[in-house]
């Protein structure tokens, strides 16, 4: 192949990676901002007479926005498998960034009473709907563009962008908490992270519109083999694969939100750390997570998807409860080490899962299969994780309750992965 063609391929791959990165970055930056500022948001949008009730209500709104995600998964999956991956991704980022920007403009409970949490809920539902097409679409996009021996590495860009969004959210939350007084933070400071969504979303859409759809989808269109009803085809022909994918995604859903979104609140409310220390510990864990994630994606190309996912599940079963038990007895440095360790174990799953799920389904239903399985897992177990963790602690009186919840998720995923076929180094199913 001529050198010019190789240069064009490399340039296309760089733009594909950038387009996939930016969209997920915007999405998870919003979720991080909401999660890390949960204590502040609870007093802004809900009555402050009962702190625990306000915090539970804040996480309940966080969870409710996930319940729309299965519906969004069907919508964006159908659009991506019928019209094209690029079209679905270009539209979803606009809806996501616009709804995120609207949060910054919402009135508070002190201004409009119960209308404030109602408006927050509506905006969060729109966000959940738009976000349901992002992770799956970007993963399918990368896997279908990637060389066959590097699909794991390419797909690991998606969780890396997710963690980068969380990282920026954590840094901004720590900065705002450290620099602003309580009055300023509660009156206007909490709005600042959500204002950034508009310019970031416009940049992401611009990049996505400058690239073509994936080669395998274009080939599907040219051969007139695009499935007119991909949802029906998925539910009728690929039910077994869908169930295995759902089980495999369960650990990612619970562990991601417990360790990287809920953890600052856990350290503050249950362990007794200050807000700044909690944010800083999670920020350090996120930096190491991003460094690890590309390595685990590359390792999955070498050792196989099942090996990596099975190892992640087994390690979570063995290490989670002892690690959480040590958090309450440790100083700042030890807490950071524990978070880094758990984050490293999480990357074994997160760096492998995008390629694993994308490779499980044929091209004609790949977007739909990934979006439905991933979003159902996140709706039922991911978005609800902070709420369930807080509720379990309240009901049991045990600070270890979130750890046992995480172990249960790991056991379910372990069974699903063991029952799945190895997809590494196999041609994409067309």
From TrEMBL:
It is found in: Cell membrane. PANTHER family: ALPHA-KETOGLUTARATE PERMEASE. It comes from the Bacteria. The keyword Transmembrane applies. It is a multi-pass membrane protein. Gene3D superfamilies: MFS general substrate transporter like domains. InterPro entries: H+-coupled_symporters, MFS, MFS_dom, MFS_trans_sf, Sugar_transporter_CS. Keywords: Cell membrane, Membrane, Symport, Transmembrane, Transmembrane helix, Transport. This is MFS transporter.
